[in-house]
Amino acid sequence: MSGFSQRDHERKFKEDLETAQALSLESLALEKFRLEREKSLQNFENTSSCNIESRTNKDDRRFQIITQTQRSSRSFNTQICQKETISRPRPGSFNTKESNISIIKPPPQPGRRCSVTHSTPSTPSNDLISFNSPSGSKHNKTPEIAFELSEPDSIGRTTSSPFQSSPHGLYSHVIGQTACNNNLLGQSPNSQFYNNSFIINHLPRHPKADQKVPAVLPVMSRQHSKVSGDPAWGILEALSKLPNSNLIDFTPSARELTTPSNNKSVRVSLLETFDPLLSGSSSDGLESDVLEEDLEGSIYEPYDPFDFLYSTPSSESCCSEPIYSTINKGPSSPSHGPPLPPRNATPVYAVSSKVQIKSQSRLYQNVVRNQRSALHDPDLMAFHKMVVECRSSYLYDNELTNSGIITSPTLENGYTTGVSAKLVIHCSNMEKTVNFTCDLSSSVEHVLCHVAFEIGCVSITDYKLKVHGLEEFLEPHRSLSEYEYVHECLKLDKDIEFSLLNNNEVKKMFQRTPEDDRRDCFISLDDLLPKEPMQPISHESLLILLETLEKEIERVISTCKEVHVNGSYDSISNLQTGSVKQAVKVVCSVLGNIEPLQITNALDDFIQACKEIPLNKMNIRTKPEIVDDDGDYSEVMLGEYPSSNNIYDCCDRIRDSVQLLIQMYCHMYRVDFQLSAPMRCAGVVKNSSELHDRDIYIGCLHRIPSDWGVYDSFRVDAQIYHGTRPLGTKTSAPNISGSDGFKPRLVFAAKHPYVVSSLPRESRIVIVVYGITYSDGQNQPTPQQVELGWASIQLFDYNGYINQGNFLLSIWPADNSKKIGPAPNPGTHPLGDSDPILDIQLPDCGYEVSFPEIDTLEKPKSYDFDSLDCATQQQLLDTINQDCFANPKVTEREVLWEKRHYLLNHPQALPKVLLAAQNWDFSCLPDLHSMVHYWAEMDPVSALQLLLPCFPDNVVRNKAVEWINRLTNDQFVDYSPQIVQALKYENYEASPLAKLLLDRSLSSPRVAHHLYWLLVHELPGDTPQNTCDAAVPEKSRVCEARYFRRLQLVLRALLAVSGDALRKAFMSQQLLVKGLAGVADNVKTSKDDHKSRMTTLTQGLHTIHSSLIASPTCLPLSPSLFVTGIQVRSSSYFPSNTLPLKINFTNEEETIIPAIFKVGDDLQQDMLTLQMIHLMDKLWLKEGLDLKMVTFACVPTGFKKGMIELVSEAETLRKIQNEFGLTGSFKDRPIAEWLAKHNPSALDYERAVHNFTASCAGYCVATYVLGICDRHNDNIMLKTSGHLFHIDFGKFLGDAQMFGNFKRDRTPFVLTSDMAYVINGGDKPSARFHHFVDLCCQAFNIVRKEGNIILNLFMLMASSGAGGLTVDSVRYVQSALLPTLTNAEAAATFARKIQSSLKSWFTQFNFFLHNLAQLRFSGDHNVGELLSFVPKVYSVQQEGRLKSVEVFNYQKRYDPEKYYIYILRVERANQPDPSYLFRSYKEFCEFQHKICIMFPLAKCYSLQGTSLHVGRSNIKQVAAKRMVEIKKFLSSLFLMADEICHSDLVYTFFHPLLRDQQEASIHQAKLKDRKKDRLVNNDPYIIKGQISLYIHYEKDTLWVMVQHVQGLNYLPNGQEPSTYVKVYLLPDPTKDTKRKTKVIKKSCHPSFMEMLEYRVPGGLERIQQRYLQATVWNYDTLQENEFLGGTVIKLSDFDLARETTDWYSLGNVHR
């Protein structure tokens, strides 16, 4: 036929094919084409071709040898090289992994496209592919098989072209393909790429006569299989179909095929001796012929230059790596190939090498749409299953777990019997309350019975008690003393108020419904999955890019075809190499700006091959020659192929490298597509304990930040970790510089060797990147390295299978968190589209490798601890009693591990034994796990230690969760911040700890509420459960983002299982917080004046108030704080830097709930500090020590924002001190005066002093242990009831506040003279201060006793970096607890810290500096009716009408300075006796000033004339003159109208204060001098007083602590003695046992707190024969010291083995 007809056929083929592809109807187009072609093929035979590709290795070099066989029809043998044909497209599929597929006969499918049609030689084929059996060759002993892609020429005859089979041809894998490794990174980055497949190549190879390529070929024997049945189906038995969508992709069969070769032919015949289709005999005869021929002949036949035999993998070795081809050398060849050369050898490729890791189809056909990859993640699937099972266990009809109400929290300790309190019961149907006094040991049921009797109810089962003002209920079976609310009321001296509700009136706001149960049964994984930080490319977009790339590649191939077929090199100018490169560049840019080294090398080879085409016009193939035949491998010299064929191979490699990039991208991000790759060898799973050495390959670092340009070179270190423990050795890559590709990158090409069998189940690889700079030294440059970041990946997945293949790892900022597991999840970096990213390859074995399972756990042997010798027992006890962060010596660890079976009954020893274990690989796990399983149960709080990241083993963590589950719900809330942080250290998403959190949330709305806000504040955005923060996070937040996905999963799971009611409550709280944050931002951005800010605040709060009326909700502070609105008029803001909002919420009972909303400060530290103080208070209460601690709730609701509970009736210390002026911080009386003002009665004042002393002691201990700094007087507050407490904990754990280089926090804690003034009751030390010191020491030792709990909680927070904590922070707490000291020594140390804090003047100076800094925020705080010295407003109805007021006299006083006070005689109606009040002239001036403000038209006598006086004002003359002025003022006042003289202001001024009720003579002109007063009742010759001593005998040492002395007499001259104590251990004739304390100057109540030591070996029997004498002396520098008293103690009267502290009376002793 003419060329025009041929082109017409070709054009028709193209049009039909494009139409079919566009409509997904390719089969229809092919069938139509077959029908048209059938008529023109009747006189011709179809042929096919195959190409066998293999790889060899010898002497660390690899050669890829590709040979091609082709057999053409005899009549058209001369036309093969002249006709250009088009390759038939194939379905998208590729194969890099292969299962163990049996050799079966595929069913005939003649009607489908790409099917194989079998016909006899006389019958024409109806398909493009025909497996006909032509007549055998007479001159050959064996038949031959020819695979050839045929195409009709112009007259309908079948022709073949060297380029008719592209990588998208019909055959991809025919013989010997396996998938031991489907990755390309196991080689040097500078080498060519290789794959593990044997690929049919349809190109003719024209060797050059003068060019050879050496190759090393392993020798393998031929294998045979019997062909039975119809010979026409023999080929189908020889070729097996791969399990993919490619209908013509076959696996290797047991029958290996060969074809003869002809030097004059374009094609070379392969394996002709094994061609069953060319034999005219039956299958039975074929086997014998083949076998006979196999045993005869030479390797190199005259017409067969190559004879490759491919060993079909046996069932035992189906996953071995067939990358080496063999030459059959005779019958003695082994049936299986020799061991393969090492994978890490650098491959060297022939010029014509062609590599593919996937099947040869178009790229866009290999990328198929699928469900999101997360749906195939075993960890996420297990998490989803866990959530569904957890939800199904808590049904709506279970009243215990679905009560729908909040239970009031309880305490572990209760009050002893005999403590009673007043109860106030509010009944919903009664206006009056029911009031009665009740013993706190009474049960709630008893209270209900009493109330029912009062209101006339018969049954109490229909009623519940609720805390008044809160939505929390009491349980009938509990006693009142168990409830935290009751304790708070007693602590603050408030009435205990409850509300009585009928069951019908109880609102079950959080109860789940049957509809919730039905809906939650269908929770899907999509409902739980959060959004990714980066939106990956879609399947459609990727297809467009890949199609563009394919078009550019096909255009180059088409040009090469034209050059090769026509022999014209004029078309070389049409080679668009730049277009291919640009298309690849676009693909790399869209797929994360990542350019693997494989793409770079493939493009470089491609461009070089295009340049070499003009140089290869004469290209004749040379005959192969065996160069070396030693051992199992043969070295063969091969001829080269044309450059045009090399271009084709380069195009293949471009496709392979792009597919590799797509594969890594799929691993990294959650995409909607995947590569159509088959699974690994099916049914083959090996244990990791069976494997040995492997290498992890570290490739390139992409997307280098611009600020890395300052470094001269870079280095990577690789280390495997198990938890926080490094395993093996760390490897470092040589220093390298940047390498240019499309964009700058770093090429490391490093390998990290490791032993697979020694890997623990939870191990991970950590890779650290360093930047290196060189500074000029004297002799040579000095390198300085800086850690730039790190990357990590878990080595085993959730199911225990080892991770294999290529991965992209994000580079996280440099910090210590790299040593903390687990590895970050892929695709979770918040800057995923711009952060540096590292490509690595984990070894691919070609089959699944799993961590072995332990079937049974045998009970370990347990030995009696007492059977050990005493020294070993003591050593073990000392080791296990150390705090959890002590670092035992190596010898101690060895002893601990060796004697572990003696410690099974010591719960506290388990963490230390586990840390002493040397190995956690599979061989050690049975012993370790059985030990954990049978160990004595740990306390739930102590078991929190096992959740630290240094305990990564899943069994250990699961056991810890089992023990922690014994916590009550209230305890669980107390420790929930640490439990949530421990969730970050779990190895996988589906963990027992996550299940525990969901279980507790389903059973307790309180737990669910706290868990919700703990998760929310860790996550970015206003709705963290739905979105990821699109803004660029702060550097400190980038490291935290590694945990965002896990926290979002748990948060979304919590929302999914909580039920509709609780879910709506969470959403309404979230809206409330969002609204408050907006108001706070608006207040900050408004004009810098009070009026504008208040207007903005009012407008914003009115909007929120309206929304709360429509939809009431709970506050984040507590689920029991249910609010229905805001009292806008009383809300305001604080004039500080962040302008916190003070908001007064209201509830249904019209109770005010004050709260602070703060934006701009990180409240995590405040939350953690308050949690620790609250836990310390519970520890003290548990030991019976009530320190009247005031704590408050603090809930971070997001990044640098949160809500704080506002403590009412409290004032800052600065405002209290400033009432005495700017220098009030240096005075002693401000706090005492303020307390006296708010507690006018003597009883109230004494109660306030008691509260102050206890709370001050508690906060001294807490602030010292926690290292709380920045303690200025605005961060210390005081309630009117006397309770002192601290606020604002932004600086803690020793992070001192600095003023430039000036350290402002210089004392262990804040204890000033004005505080001591309140405690002592004056300016002199008293016995009350001893009580204060004892409270501090007792509280400190209780905290030390439970120090492990404090340290564990801090470490759980510090390990994740929460709240800015570090390991150094925890070390600070550890050192503050003084772990090496005894209780007595620790008490003495703390007492010295009390003295150092009290004596330091710097604290008061710091207060003064803060007063100066806060002047701009100061204002008149006494505006209104309220007088500064009277806290409340009193009226005539309360006080009684005044009849007369006159000035009785004035009196001189000392306190300590001299001043005058005026005595007023006041008469009231209905009071027969007058009362006397004491007022200062300053108070009269303030009173007169307030009258002028309130009544500006009133003409009142002015006191201003004498208010300012030149010279001394506190003298008698001035006082007398002022008394006259005061009389005139009072006379004019009571001559005014009743609206003025009987106003509330007047009655407030004349209200009796505390000083008015104290005993004082009104007739004395001045109070007696203190010195003279105490001399009246003092007898210096009478010995009196007491001494407090601590005595304890331990380890042959008698410890005596002199604590306090109280009640000493004054000296004869009226002065206080300067005391010291001498101690003797009698009998002691030589006075060798003399010990004495330091001197305490001028104190009748000295506090020493000094420890004295006596070494007395011999045990208790010897020491009990002695006496202890203690004497007190007055120290005098000028004369002899004076004896003040003493005591003698008989030591046999005490149990010295126990610590004893007691007071002993002083008397005369022999001295």
From TrEMBL:
Start and end residues of each C2 domain: 1583-1704
Domain PI3K-RBD: 402-502
Residue ranges of every copy of the PI3K/PI4K catalytic domain listed in the record: 1127-1402
Sequence ranges of Polar residues compositional bias: 93-102, 116-137
Start and end residues of each PX domain: 1440-1557
SMART domains on file: C2, PI3K_rbd, PI3Ka, PI3Kc, PX
Key words, A-Z: ATP-binding, Kinase, Lipid metabolism, Nucleotide-binding, Transferase
Domain (C2 PI3K-type) ranges: 690-843
Example GO molecular function: 1-phosphatidylinositol-3-kinase activity
SUPFAM superfamilies: ARM repeat, C2 domain (Calcium/lipid-binding domain, CaLB), Protein kinase-like (PK-like), PX domain, Ubiquitin-like
Any one GO cellular component localisation term in the record: phosphatidylinositol 3-kinase complex
Residues covered by the PIK helical domain: 862-1046
Catalysis performed (reactions): a 1,2-diacyl-sn-glycero-3-phospho-(1D-myo-inositol 4-phosphate) + ATP = a 1,2-diacyl-sn-glycero-3-phospho-(1D-myo-inositol-3,4-bisphosphate) + ADP + H(+); a 1,2-diacyl-sn-glycero-3-phospho-(1D-myo-inositol) + ATP = a 1,2-diacyl-sn-glycero-3-phospho-(1D-myo-inositol-3-phosphate) + ADP + H(+)
Protein name as annotated: Phosphatidylinositol-4-phosphate 3-kinase
InterPro entries: ARM-type_fold, C2_dom, C2_domain_sf, Kinase-like_dom_sf, PI3/4_kinase, PI3/4_kinase_cat_dom, PI3/4_kinase_cat_sf, PI3/4_kinase_CS
Region (Disordered): 87-141
Annotated family: Belongs to the PI3/PI4-kinase family.
Top-level lineage group: Eukaryota
GO biological process: cell migration; phosphatidylinositol 3-kinase/protein kinase B signal transduction; phosphatidylinositol-mediated signaling
